[in-house]
Automatic annotation (TrEMBL):
Gene3D superfamilies: Galactose-binding domain-like, Glycosidases, Immunoglobulins. PANTHER family: BETA-MANNOSIDASE. This is beta-mannosidase. The keyword Phosphoprotein does not apply. Pfam families: Glyco_hydro_2_N2 (PF22666), Mannosidase_ig (PF17786). It comes from Anopheles sinensis (Mosquito). GO terms for cellular component: lysosome. It catalyses: Hydrolysis of terminal, non-reducing beta-D-mannose residues in beta-D-mannosides. Residues 38-214 form the Beta-mannosidase-like galactose-binding domain. GO terms for molecular function: beta-mannosidase activity. It comes from the Eukaryota. One of its GO terms (biological process) is glycoprotein catabolic process.
Length: 924
């Protein structure tokens, strides 16, 4: 009767807490999410914001309460800088009853960044690392009394400044001390363990956030809690897969002897040995209450399917279930037996991954990934946080949209960049499901870093916790301990040369002696690189800092060119693996909320304010001037819409040229990776992204569907002014060689009919390879015929016939410009060149997705037709055209437009579509 009364009281208190505060997430070992009814106020009590939910940040709370305008609009990045320089307090009420439980812990999964926690009058502790989980034992305070839980935040801007001032003046400074002035940012972010981009970057605004950006949970249990699971999966003998499962158990915050049984199951897959299903554990946790247990499982290979990257096969995933049950569950009558049981389910994939670096014939080292023993050409991009505000970066729908956009563009790899975040569990689950391999940096970027003991201690905890959490995902292919810090030190980016030995020692202490061993101890499944770019194994031979970390004969390289003509494919040689490259453009005119109210000059000033590259807009303008007709009057009404269009066309052409050269250089330069910079954005601003903030595709992202297509035809003019044409085939099935036919059509710009057609038949293309179709002196050919290159271009089409009698199947198409577009003669410049008609429009009430079929008609060939919705359609979101920025050398083509349309309220008509072409500029 007494036990029943105690349990009844516990339930009543939980219900009271729910009414006051939050909801219950049911688990074997109980967890209570503290996510409702928080109050936020500044330390001076000027602003009080009630009824806040977690995850949360002060910028988001202030925006939602309309105390400040949107951080992402107008000049609010600087107008709201006071927010990040103030102190803030989060508070809520907490009531619990826990005397029948051995452990009651208050766990903060993510606090950004410097905070002191109080429960009632008791100080629980402090936080100083936004990437770390903090646990506090509050069992003795769970007596039924309601206490105020208070989290007092200190400004990260002030904290970083104070740390800089308190450093030993005899030591060299931790550089760079401040970002370039054009960033409008804050100083000393490298002294604190916070998202490095939150103090501003060359693509992002300063948003020095504070808040509780991950869940806060009250954890009740009486035995051991399973915190994390890791796996090492390898092919064993006798047609078996071997799975080493690592189980990380916790018993509060202190050493405790435990006695119980771990049970292992792979749902739907029998273990090869039934004895592996259970493991008896009688051990003692360490001083922090942690214990690592390992169990080996085996399954027959024919009982599971392999996991493959996108484009190479299925993404087969299996649920691994692990349960901990204390011995007391079966031997003693317990008031709450479920809290002596803990369980966890993760999804695993059966695949092997190797980063191969064997000797190459040119004297360097290869650098490529083999998945399931198949060499993979890595195609993809670089991922920055989906929002500059950490609490918004976990927006599941938006993350899903971005990752699906990567998958649909035939990407098979993303690089999680080191100046952002260890991403949400949702992000990694989606990467697993979509077959997106992850090159994963640890969160250190473009800086030197301190190596004082306190800093190294928090880094160890950060690395340990996050690698344990992420490790089991089959999508993770490789770790790198930092972004660009090796090359920054070697090339003296931050004037470190005068104290090189000191900075070198700090580099080795942080990455070689601290981060590297922590990652390797947890993850025996993957290679750990010291930096990116780096010479890989060669950098290790050169004492961790290579003489040239950008050597194209080793490792990975980052390549940027801002002032040579990036449209010229002859510029690009290729490295072993190009993990960063790209070029800037402006977001669409209609994406700027300010475009409706600002005049041309005002909008230009805002764009310049948001251009954080120290080079400004000059590279964008220079590349347009090289190749395209340029609008002459910056004060004209149509100046920015035209310039934005040309910038996106130029960006797409540059990344297209570079990527296609890299894909073609698989055989001679051993290039096996092309990850352009960058996939996404954090605000509407000039940047390298292919997807604008909010989800609008730039021309580049539309083009990527062809650029990264698994079957593609690549053509470009090389350094010898010879046309190279390559057949690219990434597919594995069927395993036999294919025979492709390639047609090269020479066109005048003003004619639908080709001047000449040249056929290359029965080109043998093996699976997972590239094949040279032809190398041709096209300019010599034109000279013999008396044809001017600037008046002509090449259109190429690849087809395949599966049987001699079958209709040829088109595989790919491409184009080659033979001279500058600005010098084109003979193309139509008629203002009525293009007509767009709506053929059909359907909106689904179930998913709020509008699909519109458009018929694009042209009176003469149209160059780079750019379709866009008018600003009046602002309620439509994530609108994408199936083709855009295209050459139209046929009178009619069909284009699909899809948009998210909440409530299916919009009726898109032809007048809602604006059209631009290069043609209309040629006559100016």
């Amino acid at each position: 009767m007494l036990d029943a009364l105690k349990f009844f009281l516990f339930v009543i208190l939980l219900l009271v807490t729910i009414m006051l505060n939050q909801h219950v997430t049911s688990k074997r070992s109980a967890e209570l999410d503290l996510d409702l009814l928080w109050q936020i106020q500044d330390s001076k009590k000027v602003y009080v914001i009630p009824n806040q939910t977690l995850p949360s940040g002060v910028y988001t709370a202030l925006e939602q309460s309309m105390i400040i305008g949107s951080l992402l609009e107008e000049y609010n990045d600087v107008n709201t800088s006071w927010v990040g320089q103030s102190d803030w307090i989060y508070r809520t009420n907490l009531s619990c009853l826990a005397k029948d439980y051995n452990y009651v812990l208050l766990t903060f999964h993510g606090v950004d960044t410097f905070a002191t926690m109080f429960l009632g009058e008791r100080k629980l502790g402090t936080t100083d690392n936004m990437f770390v989980r903090y646990r506090f034992d509050i069992k003795d305070l769970c007596d039924g009394t309601t206490h105020e839980l208070r989290v007092q935040f200190r400004s990260p801007v002030v904290e970083a400044s104070e740390r800089a001032k308190s450093r030993d003046s005899a030591l060299p400074p931790i550089v760079p001390e401040c970002p370039p002035g054009v960033y409008h940012g804050h100083c000393h972010v490298n002294l604190i363990r916070k998202m490095q981009a939150s103090f501003a970057w060359d693509w992002g605004l300063a948003a020095p956030s504070m808040g509780i950006w991950k869940p806060v949970r009250l954890e009740y249990y009486s035995s051991a809690l399973i915190r994390d699971l890791t796996v090492v999966i390898s092919e064993a003998e006798d047609n078996l897969w071997a799975i080493v499962v690592g189980v990380y158990l916790e018993t509060g915050l202190a050493s405790q002897k435990i006695d119980g049984v771990l049970t292992f199951k792979i749902i739907g897959v029998p273990l090869a040995n039934d004895n592996e299903q259970t493991l008896s554990v009688v051990k003692t946790t360490d001083a922090q209450g942690e214990l690592y247990i390992e169990q080996r499982l085996t399954v027959r290979r024919n009982s599971v399917e392999r996991w493959w990257p996108n484009g190479y096969g299925k993404q087969a995933l299996y649920s691994l279930y692990v349960q901990w049950a204390d011995a007391a569950v079966n031997s003693v009558k317990l008031p709450h037996p479920d809290t002596y049981i803990s369980e966890k389910v993760i999804r695993i994939g059966f695949r092997t991954v190797q980063l191969n670096q064997e000797r190459a014939t040119d004297g360097g080292l290869m650098f490529y990934f083999k998945i399931n023993d198949v060499p993979i050409f890595a195609k993809g991009s670089n991922w920055i946080p989906s929002s500059v505000l950490p609490e918004r970066s976990y927006d599941a729908n938006y993350v899903k949209f971005l990752l699906y956009a990567a998958r649909d563009a035939h990407m098979n790899m993303l690089r999680v960049w080191g100046g952002g975040l260890y991403e949400s569990d949702h992000f990694y689950r989606l990467a697993d499901e979509l077959g997106l391999l992850l090159w994963h940096d640890l969160m250190f970027a473009c800086s030197m870093y301190p190596t004082e003991p306190d800093f190294l201690d928090t880094v160890r905890t950060e690395v340990r916790q996050n690698v344990r959490r992420i490790q089991y995902h089959p999508s993770v292919a490789v770790w790198a301990t930092n972004n660009e810090n090796e090359v920054a030190l070697r090339q003296d980016w931050y004037k470190t040369q005068a104290n090189y030995s000191v900075y070198y020692e700090q580099y080795v202490e942080l990455y070689v002696r601290t981060v590297l061993p922590e990652v390797e101890a947890i993850d025996r499944w993957r290679t750990v690189l010291l930096s990116s770019p780096s010479n890989g194994d060669q950098s290790l031979k050169e004492d961790y800092i290579a003489q040239n970390p950008q050597d194209p004969l080793y490792g990975d390289v980052h390549y940027y060119n801002y002032f040579l003509d990036g449209w010229n494919a002859a510029l690009y040689r290729g490295g072993r693996f190009v993990s960063e490259y790209g070029f800037q453009s402006f977001p669409a005119f209609t994406s700027w909320p300010e475009a409706r109210s600002y005049g041309t000059t005002e909008l230009g000033e805002l764009i310049r304010h948001r251009q954080h590259s120290p080079l400004g807009n000059e590279p964008i303008l220079k590349m347009i001037e090289y190749n395209l007709p340029v609008p002459s009057d910056p004060a004209a009404v149509g100046y920015w819409p035209t310039l934005i269009y040309l910038s996106q066309l130029s960006q797409a052409m540059i990344v297209k040229a570079e990527t296609e050269v890299y894909r073609a250089r698989r055989n001679d330069c051993y290039t096996m990776g092309a990850l352009y910079w960058q996939l996404n954005d954090v605000w509407i601003a000039p940047s390298w992204s292919s997807i604008e903030y909010g989800g609008t595709f730039k021309l580049l992202h539309v083009w990527l569907r062809a650029i990264f297509a698994p079957e593609h035809l690549v053509a470009f003019v090389n350094v010898k002014r010879q046309l190279e044409v390559w057949a690219i085939r990434d597919t594995l099935d069927p395993s036999a060689d294919e025979l492709w036919n390639v047609e090269v059509r020479l066109h005048r710009y003003g004619s639908f009919q080709p001047v000449d057609t040249i056929n290359h038949e029965a080109i043998r293309v093996p699976p997972n390879s590239v094949a040279l179709v032809v190398q041709w002196d096209v300019y010599g050919y034109l000279a013999k015929k008396g044809l001017r290159p600037a008046d002509h271009l090449l259109l190429l089409v690849a087809t395949r016939s599966d049987t001699p009698d079958a209709q040829p199947q088109q595989l790919a198409e491409n184009f080659v410009l033979l001279d500058k577009l600005k010098d084109v003669r003979g193309a139509s410049t008629a203002s009525t060149l293009v007509t767009v008609n709506v053929v059909s429009a359907v909106c689904s009430d179930r998913n709020n997705l509008t699909s519109v079929s458009l018929e694009v008609s042209v009176r003469a060939p149209a160059l780079f037709v750019y379709l866009q919705l008018t600003p009046e359609n602002s309620t439509l979101k994530q609108c994408q055209f199936s083709a855009n920025g295209f050459l139209q050398f046929q009178p009619v083509r069909t284009v699909q437009l899809t948009c998210v349309d909440p409530g299916c309220r919009n009726k898109i008509q032809a007048r809602d579509i604006t059209v631009r072409t290069v043609n209309e500029l040629l006559g100016h």
